[in-house]
């Protein structure tokens, strides 16, 4: 039986938890801890927020002239 | 076959047949990500554009020899990071994964925030506060996260960018950067923990 992690351990285990790489028994005690600990639930929420905010939104496309040059190169390669 | 693998096989066949629309689709799909990833290695946006062009030419040259041992996407990004690394080194920059020097090993959270003794040892002394959704919608929140990622040590910044900014899977990142699953996870953990701290700092300020 795995003992429940402390909050200090939770913040180091959180990535294994979110990545789904945690062994089942540890996952159960980890979730038990979260059930009883508001601070750690908020910590997990802050981590999820950080991940969501990281996701790029603006799509910075290649300049059109570069794209056209590459398409031309593509045509050239296909002719050979 | 998974949907993505099937889509990729179809795309690859179209590319080999010289389907220009398929190539344009590929440029649209990966071009923006490649540009951002190249900038992790080189000094400027202009150089990054050159690197991305070089990488695409490498893709075109290798297309007929591509054996599908990795996904097309992984293969393209590996060509990109190799080109970017070479270029960054030529510019005299310290590029990600250029040295075997261990990364920093600081804790995810300042140890002073946990109780050091007593029955509740290791539990929060200063717990984080709840996340008010509306504050995450502000442009400021996104800017702070972007700045936190930019300030990460190179290896962490690279892994966090590929995973959380560009949305690659852990398998893809391991394959593109040629690092182990454990190494990838440790770097992701340290990097994300710092980005989380930046979110907390932002939330703790009175709006």
Question: Can you lay out the helices and strands and say which pair or pack?
Answer:
The complex is a heterodimer of chains A (80) and B (207).
Chain A: H1 7-19, H2 24-36, H3 38-54, H4 64-79
Chain B: H1 3-16, H2 20-38, H3 45-62, H4 72-90, H5 133-136, H6 139-150, H7 154-165, H8 170-177, H9 181-204
Helix pairs in contact in B: 2-3, 2-4, 3-4, 4-8, 6-9, 7-9
Briefly note the structural class of the backbone of chain A. mainly alpha
* Helical content band of chain A: over 70%
> What gross morphology of chain A would you assign?
elongated
Strand content of chain A: under 5%
Order of helices and strands of chain B: HHHHHHHHH
Q: Which oligomeric form is depicted?
A: heterodimer
Overall strand count of chain B: 0
Descriptive account of the structure:
The complex is a heterodimer of chains A (80) and B (207). With 80 residues, chain A is mainly α. Chain A has four helices and no strands. Chain A has one domain. Chain B has two domains: 3-90, Rna Polymerase Sigma Factor, Chain: A, CATH 1.10.1740; 127-204, Orthogonal Bundle (Arc Repressor Mutant, subunit A). In chain B, 37% of the residues are buried. The longest helix of chain B is centred in the C-terminal third of the chain and has 24 residues, at 181-204. By secondary structure, chain B is an all-alpha fold. Classes of the chains: A mainly alpha (80), B mainly alpha (207). At the A-B interface, helix 1, helix 3 and helix 4 of A face helix 2, helix 3, helix 6, helix 7 and helix 9 of B.
């Amino acid at each position: 039986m795995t003992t429940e992690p402390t909050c200090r351990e939770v913040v180091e285990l959180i990535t294994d938890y979110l990545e789904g790489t945690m062994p089942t028994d540890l996952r159960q005690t980890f979730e038990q801890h979260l059930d009883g600990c508001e601070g750690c639930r908020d910590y997990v929420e802050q981590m999820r927020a950080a991940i969501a905010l990281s996701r790029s939104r603006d799509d910075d496309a290649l300049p059109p002239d570069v794209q056209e040059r590459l398409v031309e190169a593509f045509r050239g390669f296909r002719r050979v | 076959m998974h949907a993505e693998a099937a889509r990729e096989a179809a795309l690859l066949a179209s590319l080999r047949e010289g389907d220009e629309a398929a190539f344009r689709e590929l440029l649209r799909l990966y071009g923006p990500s490649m540009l951002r990833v190249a900038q992790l290695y080189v000094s400027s946006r202009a150089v990054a554009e050159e690197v991305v062009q070089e990488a695409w030419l490498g893709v075109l040259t290798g297309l007929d020899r591509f054996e599908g041992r990795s996904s097309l996407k992984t293969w393209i990004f590996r060509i990109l990071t190799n080109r970017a690394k070479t270029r960054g080194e030529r510019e005299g920059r310290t590029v990600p994964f250029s040295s075997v020097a261990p990364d920093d090993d600081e804790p995810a959270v300042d140890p002073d925030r946990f109780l050091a003794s007593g029955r509740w040892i290791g539990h929060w002394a200063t717990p984080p506060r709840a996340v008010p959704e509306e504050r995450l919608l502000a442009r400021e929140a996104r800017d702070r996260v972007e700045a936190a990622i930019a300030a990460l040590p190179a290896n962490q910044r690279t892994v966090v960018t590929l995973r959380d900014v560009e949305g690659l899977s852990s398998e893809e990142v391991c394959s593109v950067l040629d690092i182990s699953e454990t190494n990838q996870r440790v770097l992701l953990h340290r990097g994300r923990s710092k980005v989380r701290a930046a979110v907390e700092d932002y939330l703790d300020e009175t709006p």
